[in-house]
Amino acid sequence: MSSHREAPEISKDPVADSTDLYAFVSPDKPDTVAIIANYVPLQLPAGGPNFYEFGDDVLYEIHISNAGKAEADITYQFRFNTEVSDPGTFLYNTGQITSLSSKTWNRRQFYTVTRIDKSGSHVLGTGLACPPCNVGKRSIPAYDTLAQAAIGSMSSGEKVFAGQRAEGFYVDLGSIFDLGDLRAFSPAHLIPGPASAGVNSTAGLNVHSIALQIPITRLTHDGTMPSGVTDPAASIGFWTSASRQKAKVSGHASDKGSKVGPYVQVSRLGNPLINEVIIPMGTKDSWNTQSPNGDNKFLSYYEHPGLAALLPVLYKGVFPNLAGLTAARADLVAILLTGIPAGIVPGFQNFTGPTHADMLRLNVAIPPSSTPSIFGLLGKDAAGFPNGRRVFDDVTTIELRALAGLTYPLVAKTYTPDAAAGKIYDVVDPSTTSLSGLGAIGENYSTTFPYLGTPWDGFGNPSSTAMPSLSNP
Amino acid sequence: MSKVIADLSGFTKAAVVLYGDGESMENISRRSFIQRGSVGLAAVTAVVVVPLVNSASKKPKFASNRAAGTVEGPLVAHIADTKTGEIHLMFGDKEVVHHSTELVNQLLNAAKLPA
Q1: Does the ipTM surpass 0.85?
Q2: B39 touches chain A (CB under 8 A)
Q3: For position B72, what pLDDT does the model report?
Q4: CA-CA distance, A273 to A7, in Å (whole number)?
């Protein structure tokens, strides 16, 4: 969850909390782009009796900007509705679930997907079934069969999926939010501790994914394949949002209450970790309600990020050059708010125009890498973050290193990053750059749509940790 | 100045839109209307919109032809600041902004709140 529980209000509304957005040229179908928008963070697999689901009262959207104005030129909307077969039982399922239409599956969710573009609003599919949450082997003896059956193919060319998947974002939440500690570098911290390996806080957790696989020609402004990497039409911006109706009146007893009014945005996400660590506490809720094309008002937080100022304080003597870097961080503005224009990184650009906007920017003319690096562009892999975002990209380490000054030479050739800027990492030892070296984390992914792995089941994963301990009794 | 598309000048027309069932005002007491309302009074900044007596008449009449379209389902009125006279009316997935300090005051009276 690169943006999980990242703002005070949305942290109390997990169903509308956008946690991650991925966009990448499909490695197995390179004439398509895969987009995955995740919601409902930090799901324990043993989530019964009411397992996780999308909100029937939430409007989920994936927005696409292809005309260089940071506006939604195409929007895919998802609306869900839940059906309960037997309200008289407390059970999610009263027997084994062996198909998406099993009569023993008591609480099912369906959805409608609509595409809005310059030609109007088009319902691409309705009554599409979500797979069940992965309860356990007795309830669901063959989960992958159900998940595969839940992949829908639209006559317009899109593939679509909505349902529970394994959490793909890996991050050591326990250390990073404990005064910015990075476990491997704890001895150098202001409050030192022993060095240890990073821990993936999301191991064994699930998330709800809305996934699309879209032909590239359905994404570009003129409906054709871009001519090449330098074609401005090749760079496309993506963001996801969740909205709720403006007024809610709570019910009582048999009065179910009301939800009325226009939909207002309560959550949004483009690049990872923006509202998490770039936008300050007092602005996070407001940021979530706004469209990205107004993000110029947040420019100062990118130009002088708080975390970049904290690193030299927390790790005294480790970041002397960063401590002296007081100029506006034009590199971060380019990476996160406009895209990198041509001529900065040889053979690469993902510039979507001068409007400052938090969008995930993908150059769809750059093919998938045959030997991907989890460090993306920093690892000399132009197919990875910040060129879109693949499910396995180590975005936390990439952004930490960027904030620490590693990318500043892109805009200031005379700046020398601190040695530590290229060494810090969060969870995965940097000697591991390949997907195959991710170990257990790699089990969270699939090589085919929807690219996030089978969700962890509740019976096999009954708790977040079998042996809890207290570090500060 | 009302921002709505439909003409909401005059309480009777507004009440017709809000009512949604064409009953005449003469048959409805204020108490019964509040009871049948599908939204509740929550705070001074959020009130039920009820059809109120027009200051020019003790027996307001609804137009026999209501505004185009039938409002079905709940209606919520939100007044964030009772001094401005701005009333946000929400129904379905729509919102209409109406301005009337007189209507706000009548609502405050109905809610037995200070003006």
Answers
A1: no
A2: yes
A3: 74
A4: 11
